[in-house]
Amino acid sequence: MPQITSLRLLLSSANHYSPLLSPLKPNSPSLRTTTSLFTVISYSKRRRSVPPFNLRTRNKSTFRETKEREKPVSMEESESVGFNKRRAEGRDKSDKPKTLQLKVRKLNPINTICYVQILGTGMDTQDTSPSVLLFFDKQRFIFNAGEGLQRFCTEHKIKLSKIDHIFLSRVCSETAGGLPGLLLTLAGMGEEGMSVNVWGPSDLKYLVDAMKSFIPNAAMVHSHSFGTGPSDGLVPSPESFDPIVIVDDEVVKLSAILLQPNCSEERRNQYLRPHKEHSEALKPGDISVIYVCELPEIKGKFDPAKAAALGLRPGPKYRELQLGNSVRSDHQNIMVHPSDVMGPSLPGPVVILVDCPTEFHLQQLISLQSFHRYYANSLEKTVNCMIHLTPASVASTSDYHNWMGKFGEVQHIMAGHEMKNVEVPILKASARIAARLNYLCPQFFPAPGFGSLRHNHVKDHRASNEDPVSKLFKNHSAENLLKFNLRPYSQLGLDKSCIPSTTPHSGIINDLLSEIPEIVDAAKEVSNFWNRPTHSEEEQSLTKNNKWMIEEPWLNPNGNDLPSCLENVTREDMEIVLLGTGSSQPSKYRNVSSIFINIFAKGSLLLDCGEGTLAQLKRRFGIEGADKAVKGLKFVWISHIHADHHTGLARILALRRDLLKGIPHDPLLVIGPRQLKRYLDAYQRLEELDMLFLDCRHTTQSSLDAFENNDESKSPDNNVGKNLISKGSKMQSYLSRPSSLSVDSEVINNILKKLKEVLNEACLEALISFPVVHCPQAYGVVLKAAERFNSMGKVIPGWKLVYSGDTRPCLELVEASRGATVLIHEATFEDGMAEEAIARNHSTTKEAIEVGESADAYRIILTHFSQRYPKIPVFDETHMHNTSIGFDMMSVNLADLPVLPKVLPYLKLLFRNEMIVDESDDVRFSASQAI
Description:
Blueprint: E1 3-4, E2 40-41, H1 85-88, E3 114-119, E4 131-136, E5 140-143, H2 149-155, E6 165-167, H3 173-176, H4 179-187, E7 197-201, H5 204-211, E8 223-226, E9 244-248, E10 253-259, H6 268-271, E11 288-294, H7 304-309, H8 316-322, E12 327-328, E13 335-336, H9 338-341, E14 350-354, H10 359-367, E15 385-388, H11 392-395, H12 398-405, E16 411-414, H13 428-440, H14 451-457, H15 468-472, E17 475-477, E18 483-487, E19 493-495, H16 505-515, H17 519-531, H18 537-545, E20 575-580, E21 594-598, E22 604-609, H19 613-631, E23 633-637, H20 649-659, E24 668-672, H21 674-683, E25 691-695, H22 701-710, H23 745-761, E26 764-771, E27 779-785, E28 788-789, E29 795-796, E30 800-803, H24 811-816, E31 822-826, H25 834-839, H26 845-854, E32 859-863, E33 883-885, E34 890-893, H27 904-910, H28 921-928
Helix pairs in contact: 5-21, 13-16, 19-20
C-alpha cells in the first residue's frame, strides 16, 4: 500500500486543491497503518490514484470540495486522507443526543452517615461562589455550581455520577458558571448518559434557554424553577414568600425561601430596571434563595421490658409500635401507645444555607416571617448549623449580626469571600506543579500573583479563624472540605478531619530537590540562557556533560536565525499567558482552553475563554492584577462553540461590567461563531453582559477586503461608530435586541470600524479569522502587530501570532501561519493515536509540528492536550527544534522566544518520573469525549 509521509506532498497544485482534505472513515483498515498526521494512504476498491500535493502552492479556494471530483462514493470507497467529514459538518453519529436517565436510587431512611461539607471552589481566587455538598448514604445534593466545580471534584475524588440534585442560590455566572460543563460531562457518561435535577428560582429558565444553544435538550429536561420572578409581573410582597417544599422524602425535607432586594425609592434604580409592562419588575438575577434542610427525627429505642409489662407478646405488634402505631395488649384490656414503650425521640438536625447578596436583600431577610419557627425563642424547630454564602461585606454588618443572634446556639460557618482565603490553594496538585516549574524556570513560569501571601502567612491561616463575629456567636470561617456531621447523632458537630493539609512552598521545593537532585544544576543552566547572550564554549561543554541534554543536538544551532520582528524588542511589547492547556473538560493539572495576550500598556486580549478562565487569571496575576487585566481587555475571540472554549466568557463579561460600572467605557467586542451569538442573546436576558458581538465570518480575509474596499471611514465627515458606538456613553449592543441572526451590512460595517479602532489602540495591524477542520463554524485566527521604527528610522515588521483553535491539519492553517513569529497549535493526541485524532478532528503532536515547519513558523507552542496526559504529553523530541510544550500559567514574553525550545529537555528532566499516560476510567472517558 503506497504511503506519502511528507507534509509537503499533502496537497496538489491549485487545480486539485481540496482544503478540507477528503473524508476518512475513523475505523478504516487503512488508518491502522497511519504513521503521520499528514500521511496520505490511497485505499479504494477502484484503485484510484491520489494526485500529489504541494503545500507551498497558494490557493484562495475555500473548504468546499473541488468540482473536479468524481461523483460521491461510499465511505468505504472514499480516499483515506485524514479527517472526519461528518463531524466537521456536525453530522457525526457520536454527536447524536443520548436518552439521558435520572439515577433511581433506593433510599435508606436510617442513614448511617450524613453531613454537609464546604467545597472550596473560588475560595482562593474569589471568582465564584463556593459550593456545598449535602451527603447521604444513597443521595448527594450540591448547592451552587460555579466555575471550577468539575476540576475541584476531580482533584478531591468527589464522583459527579453520584450527584442527584443541584440547587442554585442565585442564577448568575458566579453561582452557575460551572453548570454547562457539568451537565455535558454527566450527559457523556456511560452508554446512555446521565441527567441530574437542577433547581433554582424562576430566573433559571433564562439560563436553560441559553444553554440549549450548545447542550442537548435531554440534559436539561430535569431543570425546575420555582417561585415568581421578573417575567411574572410586579414584585411580590415579602409576606407572600412562604417556604416552597422541593424535596420531601423519608431522608430529608428541603425547602426554599425566596429573597428579593428591598430598595428604597431613591436607590431602586440600582437594582430594578424598567419593564415595558411593569415599571417595578425585578431585574433577572435579583432573586436569591435560602435553603432549609430538615432531617427526620430519630425515634427512641424500643424497650421490650416495658412492652412485656403491658401484656404484649413478642411479635408483629412490636413492629407496629416502632412504626408509631398503637396496638391492643394481648393480656390486658388496654391500648398500648408508642410513647409507652419507646424512649424519647431525638429531633432531626436542621441546616440552613443563606445567600444574602446585598444589603438591600438584607432588609427583607430580617423581616421574613418564614424564619420565626427557627428562632431560639420558638420551641418548634432547633437549627444546628447555618452556612452563610453571604458576602463578607454584608455578613459583617450589625443588622446581619442581630439577625444571626435570633437563632441562639447555632454553629455558623461563614463561607463568604475573605482575603485570607487566597493564602491556601484549593487546587493543590496544579499549585505543586506550578511551584516546581517556577523553581526550574521562573522566566516562563512566574510565581503566582499572590504567592507572597502563601509563602509568608500560610502557616498561620488556621489560627486566624477568629474574627469579630466569632466573639459574638459560635462561628467558624469556612475552610475547604470542612464538614458538619448530622448523622450519626453522636458525632453531631464540626469535623475538620478532611481539611487538606497545607504544604508550604519551601516544602514543595525540598521534595523536588530530594526527588531530582540534578534539578539544582538544571535550574542554573536554564538561568544562564538569560544571563549570556551567546552560546559560550563553557555552556557548550556543560551541555555535553549533562545527561539530560545529550539527545537534544539542536540546542546549539549555528548562526543567528532571529526573525526581523524581534529586532530591538522589549519586554513590554507582548506576552503570551497560557491559562488553560487541556481539552474537553478541566483536570487536576490542566484547565480548558484559554490564552491571554498581554500587550501591557496597550491592553490585553483573550483567545478562547473556557470555564475557569477568570480563576486562572487571578492565580497568575493576583486578585487586583486580574481585575486590571479584565478591565484592560480590548476584545475576546472564540474559536468555536464547544463548551471547553467559551463557558468562562459570561463570568469575564459580568466582572468587567461590574468593575467599570459608573466609568465611561465601550462595550467589549466579542468575536466568535454565530452559534455563540445565540447563546449570548439568550443569556443576556438573565444578566447584561455589556458587549458587542461580531461573527468570525466577518473577519475572514475576504470579508475584511470587501469592507476595506467599501470603507468610507477615511472621509473627514465620517465619525467612526457614530451611530452605534459613542465613546463615553452607556452602550447597547445590537446583540441585546430581540432580532434575528441576520444583521444588516450597515451594522456589520459599524462593528468592523469599531474593530479597526480597537486594533489601532492595541497597535495591531490586523485580526484575520480563517476556517479550520473540526466542527461547523470552527476558526483559527491571525494577529499581526503594526510596524515600528528603530532608533535609526529603520522599519521593523510587527510580530505575527497564529492560533489554530481545534483542527485537523489543513491548508488554510498552513497558509495563515506562513512566516508566523509564534504558532499556537492544538496537539490533542500523541502520534500513535492518529485514528482518534482523525475521528475527533484533532491533531497529533507530530502533525502540529509539521504544520508549523511547512509554514516556516519561528516558534511553535503546543496546547489542548488530552487528559490522558496528566502532566506532560508524550512527544518525540526529534522534531522539537523550534517547539515548546504548553503548561497552565506558562508565560512566554516576545523577547524570550529565542530561548523557548531550549527549556524543553529540562522539562523532561523535571517530569522524568511522570511522563506516563493516565489510563484511569475517568481519564479514558474524558479522552474519548475530546471535543
